[in-house]
Design a protein that fits this description.
ten-stranded mixed sheet; about 30% helix; Arylsulfatase, C-terminal domain; 14 helices; disordered N terminus; globular
Length: about 500
């Protein structure tokens, strides 16, 4: 009996040691042991005010709202260069535009300047594929350089992406760039350049079906024993806004677009004094209801995919991210579209949903797009696999209430690949948004807004306080010096 008692004691000690060993794992190590799936969704030109739970734009987004309720909403996320290709390149490479070379949207007139994602860059998807994930990409890619054309020749925007330039994505159902929301086309994984799949369906609906098919894996498009990492790049609510099914537009039937555009900074005529931004506001603002209709439709299609994850026991072990490559001005400050420092274009949604392991809440971190890759890899337990040459930072500890070295500002960037010293530079900190525009003659125009006292950025306060102006200029200079930015020259 004594001998038996000793054995029981030994077993108890072993059990305690095993439990202690399990409990000593960091949260990231625990997550890594479960190898979560990743579904990264980003909608083109989806602005932050069109998150329904914020009660700003008149939109209906119950599925995205639920992700935010159960997940972490990064309230201060920005698109450091509010334009399609630069966002995608920052997301994939973890680097800012001057380092990854994608300084503007990819088209044939910029290919000669190296304005495309390089094959040599180790990207987000490369790391995932090399660490046991089946990686897939669905939707708009817009990171390749079409065959170069000379000045004056018609620009080529869309191009096929050869397999060797897909950065580890073994499943491919994508296109370069087009605005054919109701009649899109795609290149599938094994399709040759002349083998497009033509579709007669609203692109978010069709892509939701493609993704559900991929998750079912009936066509053996992924390795069933591996976790999946799927990137879904939805084109709407990008222009043209009016290419949206009637079932979504009915919600706004008979509504005055001027009443729908309820932000105090909306102007229904152009602001011609601004030295940056897209004009022509009077001709396009009546399409605002269509923009909101597209937002509602995108939410519904995201909901279809989430419902499939839930019904097939994939939901709880899938990290779902919702973001956007930039926002949309929709008449704020008398401007349309993107590529400007104002909040409507610069701020973007960022929601990270993984309630199995991370607590829901609002996070006020000054996060930038190059941080997404290392932060998500860190969350997935792959921090040791983050490439050494990236510029983004791993803030995954922020999900677990651990201290992080918080950034005090976020870069704003806008430039032309033909002249990287051109364009606009600026930053946002906890109090101010600051931007400086250089024209073709290197004359500078200054814009400074106190976001705390003036959240709609109605008053440019540059010139009101010389000491404050001087401090902002010095801060910008230091930031750009740290990045070896030729703009300073």
């Amino acid at each position: 009996m004594k001998h038996l008692s000793i054995k029981k004691t030994q077993l108890l000690i072993i059990l305690v040691l095993l439990l202690s060993s399990c409990n000593s794992k960091t949260p990231q190590e625990q997550i890594a042991s479960e190898q979560p799936n990743l579904l990264f969704i980003f909608a083109d030109q989806y602005r932050r005010p069109s998150l329904g739970f914020l009660n700003e734009d008149p939109v209906v987004t119950p599925n995205i709202d639920q992700l935010a309720k159960e997940g972490v909403f990064f309230s201060r996320a920005v698109a450091n260069h509010p334009l399609c290709s630069p966002y995608r390149a920052m997301l994939m490479s973890g680097k800012y535009p001057l380092s990854n070379g994608v300084l503007a949207n990819c088209h044939s007139g910029r290919t000669a300047y190296g304005n495309y994602l390089k094959r040599s860059d180790i990207c987000f998807s490369d790391v995932l594929a090399e660490n046991g994930y089946s990686a897939g990409y669905v939707g708009k890619w817009h990171l390749d350089g079409p065959p170069a054309t000379q000045s004056g020749e018609k620009k080529i925007w869309d191009t096929w992406c050869p397999p060797e330039d897909r950065h580890g994505f073994s499943f491919w159902y994508a296109y370069g760039t087009h605005n054919r929301h109701n009649a899109p086309y795609y290149w599938s994984t094994n399709a040759a350049e002349d083998e497009k799949t033509q579709v007669r369906q609203w692109s978010p609906e069709h892509e939701a079906e493609v993704i559900i098919s991929y998750l079912k894996n009936e066509e053996k498009e992924r390795k069933p024993e591996q976790a999946f990492a799927l990137f879904w790049a939805i084109n709407p609510p990008h222009t043209p806004f009016n290419q949206v099914p009637k079932e979504y537009t009915q919600h706004y039937a008979g509504m005055d677009y001027k009443a729908l555009l309820n932000r105090p900074n909306v102007a229904f005529s152009d602001n011609k004094e601004l030295k940056r931004g897209d004009h022509g506001v009077e001709k396009r603002l009546n399409q605002a209801p269509d923009y909101f209709s597209s937002v509602n439709g995108v939410d519904k299609q995201i909901g279809r995919v989430i419902d499939y994850l839930k019904s097939n026991k994939l939901y709880h072990n899938t990290i779902i991210v919702f973001s956007a490559d930039h926002g949309e001005m929709l008449g704020s400050h008398g401007l349309m579209h993107k590529n400007v420092w104002f909040r409507e274009a610069y701020e973007i949604p960022l929601i990270v949903h993984y309630p199995k392991h991370i607590k829901a809440g609002i996070n006020n971190l000054n996060i930038s797009v190059p941080d997404y890759m290392p932060t998500l890899l860190g969350l997935m337990g792959l921090s040791k696999k983050i490439p050494d040459d990236i510029e983004g930072k791993d803030y995954s500890n922020t999900f677990f209430n651990k201290e992080v070295d918080e950034p005090d500002k976020q870069l704003y960037f806008g430039s032309e690949p033909s002249d990287p010293s051109s364009g606009t530079r600026g930053f946002r900190n906890d109090k101010y948004t600051f931007a400086v525009v250089k024209d073709a003659n290197d004359k500078k125009f200054y814009y400074l807004y106190n976001d705390q006292s003036d959240p709609y950025q109605l008053s440019n306060i540059w010139g009101e306080d010389a000491a404050s102006d001087n401090n902002m200029e010095k801060e910008l200079e230091q930031l750009l010096q740290s990045m070896n930015d030729p703009w300073l020259k």
